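WP5 quarterly update. Target: Di-copper centre-containing protein. Source organism: Amniculicola lignicola CBS 123094. Length: 372 aa.
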Amino acid sequence: MAGGISLRGLYALLVSISFFSALCAADAVGDLQTKGRAAFDAQLAKSTTCTKDKLQVRKEWGDISADAKKAYIAAVLCITQKPSKLTATYPGAKTRYDDFVAIHMKNSLTIHGTGNFLSWHRYFTFAYEQALRTECGYNGTQPYWDWGRYATSPETSPIFDGSDTSMSGQGAKVTHQSNGIKPAGNGGGCIEKGPFKNMTVNLGPVQAMADTTPPKNPRTDGFGYNPRCIKRDLSNYLTSRDCTTAKIASLITASKDINSFQTTMQSQNGVHSGGHFTISGDPGSDFYVSPGDPAFWLHHAQIDRTWYIWQVQDFTKRQQVIAGGTSMMGFSSKAQSLEDIVDLEVLNVDGKKWKIKELVSMTDGPFCYVYE
Ligand SMILES: [Cu+2]
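Structure tokens (predicted):
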């Protein structure tokens, strides 16, 4: 069929066109991010502390180069070799990485399901990123995990494929139970491949789920020394149900105020739980100890990004707003206030604690970064 186009060629062309348009349509979240950027830039122009030349850009793991991935991985491994500043208080904290786990454990009941959930974790993730930079010579930024992008198969995503440019992958296949949140996946055992195969989690467990059987901590509060491998049980069960691009986009567009946004995000079928329990295992499914899995930070950067994208849809009205209480335990909870303090103790960036109202904008307080 010289000069013409064969039926097979035409078919391939049609398939590639529809595949391409499906890809475009699939990034509704990226579209919302793009739409909000002008509002962010306008605020950036007015900031006295954050200027364009200082602005740091956080990107999706799949969008950064192999060298950038390796630099991030090297910095994480580096911080697991630095000494803890908390060993005297929490004997299980041996490394500087453990300090982040310990501070999260200590605060768990007053930073989840509370009014400070988003701001506390924003500062926590930022403090980690800054520690990688100042204590381990990292020049990059905190990458994020766009759950929707790999919703059908997180195990084969560049984040979890087990390659040397991944955050390590699936746990070894072992017989195990459902953790009550999702059916048992194809892992459950120790991660055996990739950069973090020899990393240990030293603190906890505190609230181990049924899909793992970690050894008990020598202390009932979980702060004793209990080194063990990192276990995972990755599957697409929750990402394909709760963390698709359509679900993330609807969380952003359907939540009209901060209360509905943070409540929907943290609900049992929400993206927060979805990301944590996609990783699962030990400490991934442990409510207290979850930062002990190095993929935690990519997940929480995406939590933070989702908050940012929600904010920029109506930027002036979505920053100085607060809802919720100060404790997960209703009886000791009072209303959270924008004046309340976020204090990360030995993790504070430049030793500073901040009020929540100083942590709601990425161009204010200690922050100067944006998501792309
Ligand atoms: Cu948390």
